[in-house]
Design a protein that fits this description.
The chain has 281 residues and is an all-alpha fold. Helices cover 86% and strands 0% of the residues. Helix 8 packs antiparallel against helix 9. It is globular.
Amino acid sequence: MVAERGALSSYHVAMVPMLSRPGALADMGRAAARWLGGWWQIVHLGALLLVLALLPSSYSGASRARLAREIYLDTAPILLWFTLLAALIGLVLIRIVVVTAASYGLSQYALQMVVRVLVLELIPLTAAIFVALRIGLPDGRELARMRLRGELDVLRQRGIDPLRHEVLPRVLAGGFAVLMLAAVAGVVTLVLAYLSVHGFTPGGLARYTRTVGQVFSPAMTLIFTIKTLLLALAVSLIPVASALYDLPRGRVRTSPELQALVRLFLVMLLIEAASLIGNYY
């Protein structure tokens, strides 16, 4: 009898998840709806900001001054440090690639590997991650606090559009920071690659420019440009949208910053994967 009661108890325990399965499916449906709704809000906000960015009235008077201030504050303090960090890491990787290629008798391919790996792939991705952690997430946190304190509603009551006054300058400045860091670090890496292989002599300039030109074919240049622009858009838009629309609703929900980070790295992974497929397949 004891064994039969134990078996019946186990049977009832095993039946509990099956009985609660409709509720679990409903929870999964609601979670999927919230997930899709969050992405739709990001796309909708991006469309609104795109329209505002194309309007000349968004760059008049105080708006232009505020945008210039945001661009300077977001880019100038980190440009030098990121360039130095990229140069240091680039020197190490260039040296590793050049020495390894020479040991296998493949020195003619060393520069192509350096340009493809560093300039085309690593530098834009690193710049996007750097700006996301340094600018994107802090801007999202600040906007979330402004919304919780009601400051955005106060601006709206005064007849000031919060999207144009607070959100658009941050998004444009974050995107500009990614583009500037990637461009400057890419140029510095190209210069360091030439100096590491040919030294301080112009004798190898013709060969070097020919090699770089072979890497930057029209197709690869287009893919590289699109990838960098998409990374800049993702880094500047997703944290801000998550801060505006994904405020916590209880103890079980994750913070807007964590949600923004998950969404951001998912989008960056998809962009990088699409770039690799376009470049090498």
